[in-house]
Amino acid sequence: MAELTQNPKPLVRNLRDLIVTPWALIVAILTLVAILDPGNWTEIVTFAGKALAHTGQYILFAVLLLSYLKATGAEVMVARAFEGRETRMILLAALFGGLAPFCSCEVIPFIAGLLALGAPLSAVMAFWLSSPLIDPPTLLITAGALGWPFAIGKAVAAVALGLFGGFAVRALMRGGAFVQPLCEYKPAGCCGNEPKKDETPVWQFWKESERRTRFRTEFVHNGLFLLKWLAFAYVLEALLVSYVPADLIARVVGGEGVVPIVVAALVGMPAYLNSYVAPPLLAGLMEQGMSAGAAMSFMVAGAVSSIPAMAAVWSLVKPQVFATYLGLGISGAIFAGIVFQMI
């Protein structure tokens, strides 16, 4: 008791850290829903659970891959692959990002793994921005609802936004920015046992006790970190879907000119409209007078990030990287909308 009285700060800090953890926030949110809207509690929990289960396969694959690379020492090969090839990596990341079937939340585990393995932030940012925008199913759905010109325009915007973000971050890094982009997310063994550049990977890591321990530690640490933040993200997503009608959000961005395009990007960034729901809804709004440029801006901004995705992004990177990501996403969406409107 004397120790607690004489030194209360650690206790206060521990209580604060416990209260603001994603798990505590999830419990608090679901408790409020159970009290204020009990009839909707099951639907929200089911929605969040199904979304997390779907993304869980990506989390599992990404964490297993990261743990395997760390345990074998093969992450040095990743580092070597990026040496002197940043421009090429930005180009490839932006191009292949458009083919990856990830939404803004599903791409988080892979972004975390790439950053933890030392991939340059510029190439990661290119993939990060372009990947959620388009994939083969989304391309077909968009073409069916809004026409091939709109679908092709979105695909071009995806690659262009990735290139824009990648080279912008590259320029900022050359000026001394983003020396250490990661926040608290880091490999569990990053403070020691780091492989040297000339270390030879041991592919059958399970034959060595130390490497088995590293694999297990990496898997638990990184898996729990991603799981808690994505669980929180999907609970937020469930709240948005349940209590904020998508058509109500989209109607705010009606009208002609540049101003609706800017408003569409600002509203679309935090709104939740996935790539399968957005095209039919925007098709109906365009029939009611919404401009094509505003629709493109809204769709790009909404795909790049949303409140659920931003919650996960915030947990990964430092504030300046987070702000840069949002700035690139909004400015890129506005530019895509203006160009598409002109065309």
TrEMBL record:
Record carries keyword Cell membrane: yes
Protein's membrane topology: Multi-pass membrane protein
Locations listed in the record: Cell membrane
Transmembrane helix found in the keyword field: yes
CC per GO annotation: plasma membrane
Transmembrane segment boundaries: 18-36, 56-78, 90-119, 139-164, 219-236, 248-273, 294-316, 322-340
Superkingdom per UniProt: Bacteria
Family of the protein in this entry: Belongs to the UPF0718 family.
Record protein name field: Permease
Annotated source species: Ruegeria halocynthiae
Organismal lineage: Bacteria, Pseudomonadati, Pseudomonadota, Alphaproteobacteria, Rhodobacterales
